[in-house]
Amino acid sequence: MSERRQTRGEHQKALAQKNKKKAPKATKSSTKVWLKRIVLTILIIGIVGLVGGAGVFAYYASTAPELDEDLLKDPVSSEFYDKNGEIFATIGAENRKYVKYEDIPEDMINAILATEDVRFFKHHGMDFYRLGGAILANFRDGFGAQGASTLTQQVVKNSFLQNEKKLKRKAQEAWLAFQLERKYSKEEIFEMYFNKMLMSGRIYGFGTAAQYFYGKELKDLSLDEEALLAGLVQRPNAYNPLKNPELAEKRRNTVLGLMYQHGKITKAEMEEAKKVDVQAGLSDDATRQSFAGSKYDAFLDIVINELEKNGDGSAMAEGIKVYTTLDPNAQQIVENIMNDDSNFPTEKIESGVAVVDTKTGQIQAVGGGRNYGNRTFNYADDLKINHPGSTMKPLLDYGPAIEYLKWSTGKTLVDDPMKYTDTNQTITNWDGKYLGAMTVRKALYASRNVPAVKTFKEVGADKAKEFIGRLGIEAENAYETDAIGGGDITMSPIQMAASYAAFGNNGVYTDPYSITKIVYRDGKSSKDYTPKPTVAMEDYTAYMVTDMLRDVVSNKPDASGTAANVSGLDIAGKTGTTNYSKDEFNKYNLPDTSVPDSWFAGYTTNYSIAIWSGYEKRSDPITTWDERRLPQHLFKNIMKDLSANIETARFKKPSSVVEATIEVGSSPLKLASDYTPSELRQTELFVRGTEPTEVSNEYEAPELSTPYNVSASLDLAGQSINIGWEHDAILDPETDEPMATTFEVSATREGGETVVLGTTDKKDLTVSNTLEDGNYTISVVAIVDGTRSEPGTTSFEISSMPDEDLGTEDPDNPDIEQPTPPDQGNGEDNGNNNGNGNNGNNGNNNGGNNGNNGNNGNTGNGTGNNGNDAGSQPPVTPTDPVVPNQENDSEQ
């Protein structure tokens, strides 16, 4: 049977099916081709990258510095410059105890290796296992998130390279590490590391650290002490057990855990070492001070802390230049005063001092303590847990009240018994008294507690906290107890000085800083440390607070900071003391007068200074006023010496502030009236636009009697005016004694102006005659406490005699006096009762001419009497008659 041929349709169908089966094979083949291309491309890129990377690595390696044995074995010195660009400290290999490898205890070696480089004796300078882990961390958390440096690399970095996470440095570090491993043995490299690492502050090398922290040789260290030293290298200042025991303990326990993990110690040894108090066995101050320090140790501590804060704590080991804000003159003044025992009332009382530039926030000088030396606790910076007392009042209470509520300095507050909200605890004042109504100004300068808490409550905790936050003071919460400086908020003298400086700098605040910049070893790379100033408050707030704080150092009654005043300087400041709790009084068996802390913060336009005083142990109290006032006395001495040879400008009132004389106690505030008693008249400050316009009508004019029996006369030569009067004084209702009265005397010319002749507290007044001829009204007004009486008056004439009236004697016709009978003389003089007083006297002297001269006047009873006295004199011998002078005859 022959095979049937496919029809045309069957053939096409079979062909289509065949093509359909072949299609997947073609797709699969195409995918393989693309995969090969991708792999090939990646391979080519990798090869190119490898070649390029190798080229870059080779280039960077070729530019790496040569190995220098001296640099490898000794720390690289860092230099510190003052504000004038002069070196004041060099820190490096000074006073370092060098230890040979064979003298290092095995446990000390194991602690370092377990912590820093457990594969040290197996790698050749680079640990690729750790490197892989670091690369993964950098991909996950960003470049530079984790390092993989071996001990060899750390030696290289601290000997030749600057502290930066750049590809060039990493390449050079790796190359030099390989070179170092080829040239030196592992033991030699470990010895380099052991002796050159920065351990804390200015302490280099583990051998030096053992003596500094424990006063021991390395061989005498216990396991827990070895672990602590091994952990310091990572963050030398942060893990310092003297300053940060909690962090130090955590780090020490981490090292012990790593030692156990890597089989260097047993679990029992680890747990036993962890139980030891991290501060047990630490050396005393005397031991630590035996290590040579810098010229200005206290200030250098601040600089080192700032390097640590900015992530450059270990940079000193790499040879940097640090440019600081140190004013060597100011620092020397502070140290001279702090080291003079005669400035302190007791042997053991301590103080911390911070001097900050008011305008810039630069730390000019610090006093870390008496005879500071190379100590560990710096009272200027490390004192951060002690309460500030009443120095908080301008910061947390009155500053915010002016800023947000636009209070006047004359606003009325009442100092009366009060309890903290929702408690039975009564708020008391330092003297146990309540003074009633007073101005904000007095409440601040007299440091009254109740008004401060009332002010804080009106401002509100949130606003108050916001205000101090702009002054660099960190606070999670603000409570009523913080209003008087006894709550949760604490600060160091440095922070307090910087915060107060904003008041003296028109409201502009700058974080306090001791470093302007650092320059790395290459001399080109640098890092700027200068913070930017910010506006913390309105200029009216800054000035009004400053003006009130001026009164703190004034001689006003109740002023709390009088002892801090420096004559001739415009100073503002605030005192502060803190209190013990009731439990502490019982626990320490303290006298009732005890306080734990005393503060003073004050400023001029140049310097802001904050000072704390107290004792190292809280159980040792301040009990005397000499101890309490110590910060004021130190402030005065320091500020006086600092300002001796420089110009200190006064605080300038801004245009946003106006003055008004108010009646104290009025609410709302009103302007004082003419009748407001002087003791209630006070000029206070207001934010422009908030000053009062209504005048108080609380007081009416007192009923003052009008002066009476007012009289006035010229002296013999007409050169002065004698004025007299009578007056009935007002009696003080409290004492029934006459009230102090002054009298204002004036003269008003007929048809002319009024001239004040003078004031007096007597009932007569003699003044020079400077009045022109004419008729005058003499007025006398009585004044008591600003209240004026109606004037008592009298009429008065000024008339001068022309020169021609005086006449001249004719030698050919001499005047001859005529005898005058006594009764005739009396008649003439009686006629003078209405004559001018001075002319009447002249008439008496001239005998017969008296009567004629007396007839010239129309007033003057007193002079007429004088005429009687003259007329009663015995008659003179008759002489020849004289021809009357024609001019005189016409005058008569």
Please summarize the sheet with the most strands: 5 strands, mixed
- Number of extended strands: 28
User: In CATH, what is the class of the domain at 95-274?
Assistant: Mainly Alpha
Order of strands in the sheet with most strands = 2-1-5-13-14
Mean pLDDT: 82
What is the fold-level CATH name, i.e. the topology of the domain at 95-274?
Penicillin binding protein transpeptidase fold
Over the alpha carbons, how many angstroms does the gyration radius reach? 47 Å
Quaternary class = single chain
- What shape does the CA trace take? elongated
Secondary structural class: alpha+beta
Question: How many separate helices?
Answer: 28
CA distance, first residue to last residue: 194 Å
Within CATH, the superfamily of the domain at 95-274 carries the name Biosynthetic peptidoglycan transglycosylase-like
CATH architecture of the domain at 95-274: Orthogonal Bundle
Uncertain segments are 137-147, 803-818, 820-892
Amount of beta strand: 15-25%
**Helical content class:** 25-40%
Brief rundown of the structure:
The chain crosses the membrane at residues 38-61. The chain has 892 residues and is an alpha+beta fold. 37% of the residues lie in helices and 16% in strands.
Task: Describe the protein's architecture and organization.
The chain is α+β, with helices and mostly antiparallel strands and 892 residues long. It is 37% helix and 16% strand. Strand 9 (418-419) and strand 10 form a beta hairpin. Helix 1 (8-62) packs across helix 6, helix 5 (151-160) packs across helix 6 (167-183) and helix 24 (822-831) runs antiparallel to helix 27 (861-871). The radius of gyration is 47 Å and the shape is elongated. 40% of the residues are buried. The chain crosses the membrane at residues 38-61. One of its GO terms (molecular function) is peptidoglycan glycosyltransferase activity.
